[in-house]
Amino acid sequence: MKTLIRNGHVVTATDDYHADILIVDGVIEQIGKTLLVEADREIDAAGLLVMPGGIDAHTHFDMPFGGTTSSDDFLTGTRAAAFGGTTTIVDFAIQQRGHSVQEAFETWLGKAEGKATIDYGFHMILSEATSATLHDMQGMVDQGVTSFKMFTAYPGVFMVDDGGIFKALQRASDIGGLIAMHAENGSVIDVLVEQALAQGHTAPKYHALTRPPEAEAEATHRGIVLASLANAPLYIVHLSSYHALDEVVQARDRGQLVFAETCPQYLFLSYDNYEEPGFDGAKYVMSPPLRPKEHQAKLWKGLGTNDLQVVSTDHCPFCMKEQKALGRDSFAKIPNGAPGVETRMSLVYDGGVAQQRLSLNRFVEITATAPAKLFGMFPKKGTIAVGSDGDIVLFDPNGSTYWSTKTAHMRVDYNPYEGRTTVGSVRMVLSRGEVIVDGETFCGRDGRGQFLKRSSFKNP
Ligand code: URP
Ligand code: ZN
Ligand code: ZN
Question: Ligand 3 centroid vs 429 CA: distance in angstroms?
Fold first, then answer.
């Protein structure tokens, strides 16, 4: 199968030129000014940006959490991702306490197989650092699961103590793994939650008020120190506050291999959303929580200066009606998480490129190239180059996109960005040379997505 994209404005993390792209059997075979070749399908990309498909390195599809399961599975979640211009996701398999990482890996493969429409990899959540899980990390790396998420939050569920995290960091350093850390001080947060509830503070906003940025900064600092002691690289997930960012900046300035992602919700939403009427604040209950507005400019700056390397989503949707409602009487029972896999590329383009905070190259870097490198998928994924997969988004910089639950494809009954219009629109999406989204039409096939056996981390 030969697909030819003509007349496009090609943008990668480093390049910006006009060219034709020939994709043969899923892989980019030629890039040139005016290619003299015939193809089974020709696509005219005149006036459109031709960029690497987005990589969302942080999704939770079909995830059992908070007494329920995230409402998008690999079918609806990857379709929604595709509509948003994302062609690769890295989801989180969960090693449950008392169970093996291999069991978790196979469970998550089973969740994705036959459903995913785009390619996918897995990080492995380590809920404990026993000799068995530590030993079995090697088997995961061998099978292409080269990153491991550990938590300093959620005591009794995912939290592992400092000794356990340190052992996992040492092991990761030995075997070419990367520890991705959810950095919030869970023990302190639990005390604050207990105290808030004892005072009768049950509304959603208390979720944010009991998870202060200092608790994020402390755990970020701790993770950085433990990683330094273990001589291991560290990736901080869903960084939300300038307090935590300052810790990352200091570590990077010392030359330590510390990387961090933020998410659109921390760039576009704020604590004010928790003050929405009634129970609506529950829409934004996620961890870490949304911060006061003044954090946003500092996060954008961090993205511009490469103190933050990635924007991913932490897509973890729960419906208001049946799922968030579990916490009507207590914010502590609201399932943590929010949708975002479909909105990420458009939001970052809008707030980054259109608002002139980021160059087009930087946009590609933080949404595709850097996660591809950090998580061992580059140059197969994350760029447009001869030999790379034909994962491409055709984006109309002169278009606009209106966001609403009614038109979005995520399986959830609200959209945190309801009523917002973003500059630019995703016009077409190709995955390994196949058109999977054409305007409003889904042309992919459920289950066509392939598991990505990832290599070890590379410093982007
Ligand atoms: O609130 C969140 N972030 N839910 C998803 C799980 C996690 O910690 O990433
Ligand atoms: Zn997390
Ligand atoms: Zn997450």
Answer: 25
